[in-house]
Design a protein that fits this description.
five-stranded parallel beta sheet; 260 residues; three-stranded parallel beta sheet; 10 strands; 9 helices
Length: 260
């Protein structure tokens, strides 16, 4: 399969996965391995990656030599909090610059606060971070974030953790058509068909956490998501047959019929 390129680095997998909500780091490891993901997100405020030397570290379960870590600002509601969190992550990960920015609007919907997101993105890019940014499905905001210098735009499919799938494919399609950096669907994927649809629309990748970690069998769901992302990408590259409303088209030849 063709490779995903983010901030100049190629990746074979177009599935990005989160590391939260699993019962323990062993389940996290097994699910991530089954997903085939090469980029893993980690909530700096919620996951130990060295902040507490007395507790198990995610770095032991998922070694940075094998995975690209994507520190995120989950739980941040202001630009200042997000900036401070990612600067801490850079220190903990020895100067790591690829990050996921998310600034939330409220704790109920977890909808992005795009005003604070734009503010944080501008400061972080100037500070040398390579910013992948969670945002709404507003094409205008997506373009502004690209203009600031974000290396990937990550519009929601639906609310974080909702599992509702892609609620507005039309806005998502506009973003895909207009944005030159990778477009990664983030938030709201519930099952394999949601991931496949995102890829069939032309998204460059899909990021998910709850859809895998919240499944009854996370490892099996991770395998399903891997296949769905690959199938969706191949279908997009193949080019689907056009939809024909009220028009039928026989799948077998109409000439040379037996008895004619």
């Amino acid at each position: 399969m063709d490779q995903l390129v983010i901030a100049g680095k190629p990746y074979s997998s177009r599935l990005l996965v989160g590391t939260g909500k699993y019962k323990d780091f062993d389940e996290t490891r097994r699910a991530v391995e089954a997903s085939g993901a090469e980029i893993v997100t980690v909530a700096i405020r919620r996951t130990n990656i060295g902040q507490d030397a007395s507790q198990p570290s995610l770095l032991d379960a998922l070694p940075p030599s094998r995975y690209t870590y994507l520190p995120n600002t989950a739980g941040c509601y202001t630009a200042d909090d997000a900036i401070r969190t990612l600067r801490l992550a850079r220190e903990l990960l020895d100067g790591h610059s690829l990050v996921k920015l998310e600034v939330l609007g409220d704790p109920q919907s977890l909808y992005p606060n795009v005003v604070e997101t734009l503010k944080a993105a501008e400061i972080l890019v100037k500070d040398g971070f390579q910013v992948m940014v969670y945002t709404s499905d507003d094409p205008i905001i997506a373009r502004q974030l690209e203009d600031i210098g974000c290396v990937a735009i990550m519009p929601l499919a639906s609310l974080i953790g909702s599992g509702m799938g892609i609620l507005n494919p039309w806005n998502l399609q506009i973003i895909i058509d207009r944005i030159k950096v990778p477009v990664v669907v983030d938030a709201g994927v519930g099952t394999a068909s949601d991931a496949a649809i995102a890829m069939e629309l032309g998204c460059d990748a899909v990021l998910m956490n709850t859809a895998i970690a919240g499944a009854q069998n996370p490892v099996l769901m991770a395998q399903a998501m891997k296949k769905a992302v690959e199938a969706g990408r191949e279908a997009f590259l193949a080019g689907r047959t056009p939809k024909k409303i009220y028009t039928a088209s026989p799948s077998s030849p109409t000439s040379g019929l037996i008895g004619s």
